[in-house]
């Protein structure tokens, strides 16, 4: 890890710790007392000037009611991630449907664009934890959500629990393009 990466980690981890401390409604001095770490040290951590040892990170996380992994994962999220259309990863869902990943890295949600050729469909229905939101950019699709057919045209949206069986279809003679947004990430 180079110096710039270390600095970015220190700053983002510090911000995660500060946010968790405030969410726990603790002052810096109270966190210092409960963790047996000095207030100046914790201030340096929160300001991104230093990173705590693994043992101290676990101690801080436990006191804040979270885990070191969660604090590090939150700190790994950049506030802005740009994915250029021509650089996005793609995945063939079937011979007639391509998925473009619109989001990269550690995240709380997925956003994927599907381009579905005429008379194509998801290979099968699926279920998973979380929720999904679909937005049709162009064309028309049909979603079967828990046995109910929902027809969507450009500009239409639908939101549903992903724990019910769901599957998309393009029954038309035109290509359809739509976004699947889900949380937590499922793909």
UniProtKB/TrEMBL annotation:
GO molecular function, one term: DNA-binding transcription factor activity
Entry keyword annotation includes DNA-binding: yes
Record keywords: DNA-binding
Domain of life: Bacteria
SUPFAM superfamilies: lambda repressor-like DNA-binding domains, RmlC-like cupins
Chain ranges of the HTH cro/C1-type domain: 17-71
Cellular-component GO terms for this entry: cytosol
Cross-referenced Pfam families: Cupin_2 (PF07883), HTH_3 (PF01381)
PANTHER family registered for this protein in UniProt: HTH-TYPE TRANSCRIPTIONAL REGULATOR (PTHR46797), METHYLPHOSPHONATE SYNTHASE (PTHR46797:SF1)
Protein name stated in the entry: XRE family transcriptional regulator
Originating species: Gordonia aquimaris
Lineage, uppermost ranks: Bacteria, Bacillati, Actinomycetota, Actinomycetes, Mycobacteriales
């Amino acid at each position: 890890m180079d110096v710039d990466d270390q600095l970015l980690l220190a700053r983002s981890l510090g911000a995660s710790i500060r946010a968790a401390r405030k969410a726990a409604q603790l002052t810096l001095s109270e966190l210092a007392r409960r963790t047996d770490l000095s207030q100046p040290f914790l201030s340096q951590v929160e300001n991104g000037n230093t990173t705590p040892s693994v043992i101290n990170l676990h101690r801080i996380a436990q006191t804040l009611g979270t885990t070191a992994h969660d604090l590090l994962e939150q700190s790994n999220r950049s506030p802005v991630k740009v994915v250029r259309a021509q650089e996005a990863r793609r995945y063939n869902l079937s011979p007639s449907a391509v998925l473009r990943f619109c989001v990269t890295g550690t995240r709380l949600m997925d956003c994927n664009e599907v381009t579905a050729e005429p008379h194509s469909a998801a290979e099968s229905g699926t279920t998973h934890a979380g929720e999904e939101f679909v937005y049709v950019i162009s064309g028309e699709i049909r979603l079967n959500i828990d046995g109910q057919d929902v027809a969507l045209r450009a500009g239409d949206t639908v939101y549903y629990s992903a724990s019910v069986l769901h599957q998309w279809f393009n029954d038309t003679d035109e290509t359809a393009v739509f976004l699947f947004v889900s949380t937590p990430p499922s793909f």
